[in-house]
C-alpha cells in the first residue's frame, strides 16, 4: 500500500515573545520583527504574542532584570531570585507574569513557542547577551515552557530560510503526532511509516533500533508501549537537523520520486552541488509542493500545511488536466 502525505488544513497556533513580533516592549523600548522575513507564510499560523515582564507589571521602559543565585529552574523552587538593575527584588512579580503568559498561551491552544534567547525571562539556552556569556539558562519563563513540554523555537532561526524550514516541518510533524489518536498496532505502524524517514535523518541509530523494536511487538504490548513511543518520537522531533543531512534527505526522497513516478523536478540538485541555504530551502519547498500536487509522501517533510482553498485549487487543476 502506498502511503500519502499528511496535509493539515487547520492553522497551528504558535506563541511568540512579544518583542520578537515587532512590539517595542523590551526593557529599552526596542524590538525586532522576526516574522517579516517569512512573507506570506506568516499567514499560515496563528500567532499569540506574550511578554512575561510586561505582564509582571514592570512596564516599558524599565530597568533590565537578571537572575541571582541560580537559573530559572531555581526561581520556581525558591532557590534563586530576580532583581532589576537598581537592586529591587522583582521575583514574585515575574513569576506571576510568567504564569499569566502561560495561561494566555493555553487559551490560544498553543504547544509551540518562538522565544527570544538572551532574555532572563524568555531565554532557554541563554539569559544574557553580554559578550559570549550564556548567563544562567534557562530563563524563568523558558523553564516553565520546558516543563510544560512546549516545542521551543529560537527566534533567531527564523532569519535563516533553511533553519526555519527545518523547524517548521518538524513542528508540523510534532503537532500532528501529538494529537493523533492511536487505538492499535496497525495505526501505530502507519504513523511510524510516515515519520520514520524524518526520524532516521535526525537520529539514524535510534530510528533503526526503534524499527526493530516495532517489528517484535504483539497486540498485547500496545497499551504499555505506545505512551513511551510517543514521548520518544516527540522529543526527537524537537531536535534540529543539519544542512548536510537535509540535502542528503532531499536527494534521497527526490530520487525515489523520480523512480516511482517517472517524473523530474528540474530545480532540485544533488547534495554535492554547491548552493546557499536560500536555494536549498527553495528546492525543499518545491518538493513539498510537488508532493501535495502528486499525492506523494515526501519523507523529509511528511506533514504539510495547505489551506483549504489552495487544496481545492490543486484538485481543480487535476480535474481540468
Give a structural overview.
The chain has 2 domains: 153 residues, no CATH class; 161 residues, no CATH class. 46% of the residues lie in helices and 11% in strands. The chain contains 11 helices and 8 strands. It has a 4-stranded parallel β-sheet with strand order 3-2-6-7, sandwiched between helices.
The number of helices is 11
User: How many angstroms separate the termini?
Assistant: 25 Å
Computed CA radius of gyration, to the nearest angstrom: 22 Å
> What percent of residues adopt helix (DSSP H or I)?
40-55%
SS-based class: alpha/beta
Task: Provide the succession of SSEs.
Answer: EEEHEHEHEHEHHHHHHEH
Strand content: 5-15%
How many structural domains does the protein architecture include? 2
The largest sheet is: 4 strands, parallel
Overall pLDDT metric: 93
Write down how many β-strands occur, each being a DSSP E stretch of 2 or more residues: 8
Major β-sheet strand ordering: 3-2-6-7
Described by the principal axes of the CA atoms, the overall outline is globular
pLDDT < 50 stretches: none
Short account of what is shown:
With 321 residues, the chain is of the alpha/beta class. It has helices spanning 52-55, 72-77, 91-107, 140-147, 161-178, 185-202, 204-215, 222-237, 243-261, 277-294, 308-320, and strands at 6-8, 12-17, 45-50, 65-68, 81-84, 112-115, 151-154, 303-305. A 4-stranded parallel beta sheet has the order 3-2-6-7, with helices on both faces. A two-stranded parallel sheet has the order 1-8. The protein has a two-stranded antiparallel ribbon with strand order 4-5.
Amino acid at each position: 500500500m502506498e502511503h500519502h502525505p499528511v496535509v493539515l488544513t487547520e492553522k497551528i497556533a504558535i506563541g511568540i515573545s512579544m518583542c520578537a513580533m515587532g512590539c517595542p516592549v523590551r526593557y529599552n523600548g526596542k524590538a525586532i520583527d522576526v516574522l517579516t522575513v517569512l512573507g506570506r507564510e506568516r499567514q499560515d499560523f496563528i500567532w499569540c504574542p506574550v511578554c512575561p515582564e510586561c505582564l509582571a507589571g514592570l512596564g516599558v521602559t524599565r530597568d533590565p532584570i537578571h537572575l541571582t543565585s541560580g537559573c530559572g529552574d531555581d526561581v520556581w523552587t525558591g532557590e534563586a531570585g530576580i532583581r532589576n538593575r537598581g537592586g529591587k527584588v522583582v521575583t514574585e512579580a515575574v513569576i506571576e507574569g510568567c504564569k499569566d503568559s502561560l495561561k494566555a498561551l493555553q487559551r490560544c491552544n498553543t504547544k509551540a513557542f518562538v522565544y527570544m534567547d538572551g532574555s532572563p525571562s524568555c531565554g532557554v539556552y541563554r539569559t544574557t547577551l553580554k559578550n559570549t556569556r550564556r548567563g544562567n539558562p534557562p530563563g524563568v519563563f523558558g523553564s516553565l515552557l520546558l516543563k510544560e513540554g512546549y516545542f521551543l523555537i529560537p527566534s533567531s532561526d527564523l532569519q535563516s530560510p533553511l533553519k526555519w524550514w527545518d523547524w517548521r516541518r518538524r513542528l508540523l510533524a510534532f503537532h500532528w503526532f501529538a494529537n493523533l489518536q492511536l487505538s492499535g498496532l496497525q495505526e501505530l505502524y502507519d504513523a511510524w511509516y510516515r515519520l520514520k524517514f524524518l526520524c532516521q535523518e535526525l537520529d539514524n541509530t535510534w530510528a533503526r533500533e526503534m524499527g526493530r523494536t516495532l517489528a517484535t511487538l504483539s497486540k498485547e504490548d500496545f497499551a504499555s508501549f505506545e505512551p513511551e513511543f510517543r514521548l520518544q518520537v516527540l522529543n526527537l522531533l524537537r531536535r534540529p537537523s543539519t544542512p548536510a543531512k537535509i540535502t542528503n534527505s532531499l536527494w534521497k526522497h527526490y530520487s525515489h520520486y523520480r523512480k516511482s513516478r517517472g517524473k523530474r523536478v528540474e530545480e532540485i540538485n544533488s547534495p554535492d552541488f554547491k548552493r546557499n541555504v536560500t536555494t536549498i530551502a527553495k528546492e525543499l519547498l518545491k518538493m513539498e509542493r510537488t508532493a501535495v500536487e502528486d499525492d506523494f509522501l515526501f519523507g523529509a517533510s511528511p506533514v504539510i500545511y495547505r489551506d483549504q482553498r489552495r487544496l481545492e485549487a490543486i484538485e481543480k487543476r487535476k480535474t481540468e488536466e
